[in-house]
From TrEMBL:
<keyword id="KW-0808">Transferase</keyword>
<dbReference type="InterPro" id="IPR029044">
    <property type="entry name" value="Nucleotide-diphossugar_trans"/>
</dbReference>
<comment type="similarity">
    <text>Belongs to the glycosyltransferase 2 family. CrtQ subfamily.</text>
</comment>
<keyword id="KW-0328">Glycosyltransferase</keyword>
<keyword id="KW-1133">Transmembrane helix</keyword>
<dbReference type="InterPro" id="IPR026461">
    <property type="entry name" value="Trfase_2_rSAM/seldom_assoc"/>
</dbReference>
<dbReference type="GO" id="GO:0016757">
    <property type="term" value="F:glycosyltransferase activity"/>
</dbReference>
<keyword id="KW-0812">Transmembrane</keyword>
<keyword id="KW-0472">Membrane</keyword>
<keyword id="KW-1003">Cell membrane</keyword>
<dbReference type="InterPro" id="IPR001173">
    <property type="entry name" value="Glyco_trans_2-like"/>
</dbReference>
<protein>
    <recommendedName>
        <fullName>4,4'-diaponeurosporenoate glycosyltransferase</fullName>
    </recommendedName>
</protein>
<comment type="pathway">
    <text>Carotenoid biosynthesis; staphyloxanthin biosynthesis; staphyloxanthin from farnesyl diphosphate: step 4/5.</text>
</comment>
<comment type="function">
    <text>Catalyzes the glycosylation of 4,4'-diaponeurosporenoate, i.e. the esterification of glucose at the C1'' position with the carboxyl group of 4,4'-diaponeurosporenic acid, to form glycosyl-4,4'-diaponeurosporenoate. This is a step in the biosynthesis of staphyloxanthin, an orange pigment present in most staphylococci strains.</text>
</comment>
<feature type="domain" description="Glycosyltransferase 2-like">
    <location>
        <begin position="5"/>
        <end position="113"/>
    </location>
</feature>
<feature type="transmembrane region" description="Helical">
    <location>
        <begin position="207"/>
        <end position="228"/>
    </location>
</feature>
<dbReference type="GO" id="GO:0005886">
    <property type="term" value="C:plasma membrane"/>
</dbReference>
Amino acid sequence: MSSVSIIIPTLNEAECLARTLRHLTILVPPVQEVLIVDGGSSDETVTIAQKAGVSVIAAKKRGRAAQMNQGAEVATGEILCFLHADTLVPDDLVAVIEQTLVDKTVAGGGFISLMTGDRTTRWGVSLHNFVKSYYAPLLFRPHLFFQGLRLLFGDQVIFARRADFWKCGGFDSNIPIMEEADLCLKLVRQGKIRLVNRIVQSSDRRVAHWGFFKATGIYLAIGFLWGIGVSPQYLKQFYEDVR
């Protein structure tokens, strides 16, 4: 058994959750546990999770950051891995994470997200999101970039040692978006943030809903405004939930 706990925050994710959980059953080595923290879904999300045999926790507070923190509080693994319900991971996920964290100078990391849908792969958006992990910290926090900061986002499957995660305070449960990038800013005090050279597949549902140009514009604007200090609470209005 591995030392990795996977934490999945959910809210009405019935459409994609079963597939995500099926992928987790073939991991070699297997994870220590999978924890679903549900924010009050009105669809079949909870039923799907229960049928899959994973632990389901009712969120005390709705919101990805708060739900992931709640999962981290009860997780028993030495390593925490935060996974979105619409993201598929490689079957050697656990080994890759554990090998990355063998380096004690690395506090956490994430993967390269390839945004895919039923009919297409969003190569342009995926490439921009990959490059953004580097150019955003170089542009807005250059001193931290040279200390090892890479800005990671939710669909990149962020992981960290449980001790380092709590030492920096975990996610800020008061912010509605950019909680992963905010965590990276805090986690880099414990060590480098590593962008692993492996792919995870994330749903393209936002790009499919918005269209390429609108999606790219929103991602750029939110990233830039956050980088210069605009509050995530204000920015959330431009980032609608898409299911």
